[in-house]
Design goal:
The protein is mainly α. 66% of the residues lie in helices and 0% in strands. It is built from 5 helices and no strands. The protein starts with a helix and ends in a 24-residue tail after the last helix.
């Protein structure tokens, strides 16, 4: 993959995260996101998701908050280093999603697990060497506003 393409990929994955998880970041929007996921899970043939207690809301809000901030960082400062860390995090998230899928069989998890894993693979894809450019072991920083 060309380094410029990689930086675009890091930004695209950050935008995806904002679209998928920002609703988890506040106590006003998290219940709406939970209900939407529950309805979708039911439409896909699964059971409605269990209700959230206040502690579940707290954990969900922490997740939504940190992913939102992490996404904004990658949008503003995409780099090879941030993309690789994000890819690693996506593999961890995919592991938890797979574990939860095995425990619950909730079909809505497939809609999250597949893209999560694919974003991880894409962000760990090798970069092609470009003469005169930084090597892949050095953080690749965006210096252009057009990326």
């Amino acid at each position: 993959m060309h380094p410029t393409t990689y930086l675009r990929l890091v930004r695209a994955s950050a935008l995806y995260d904002l679209l998928v998880t920002t609703a988890l970041a506040t106590p006003w929007t998290l219940p709406l996101a939970h209900q939407l996921m529950s309805n979708l899970n039911f439409q896909l043939g699964g059971a409605p998701l269990p209700d959230f207690a206040p502690f579940h809301m707290f954990i969900g809000g922490l997740l939504g908050s940190i992913v939102t901030v992490w996404s904004l960082l990658r949008l503003k400062h995409p780099s090879l280093q941030l993309g690789r860390y994000d890819g690693a995090a996506r593999f961890l998230f995919s592991g938890w999603m797979g574990w939860t899928l095995a425990q619950t069989g909730a079909p809505v998890l497939w809609l999250l697990l597949v893209p999560e894993f694919l974003w991880g693979v894409a962000q760990w894809w090798p970069l092609q060497s470009v003469p005169g450019r930084l090597q892949t072991s050095t953080p690749l920083r965006s210096t252009s506003r057009t990326l």
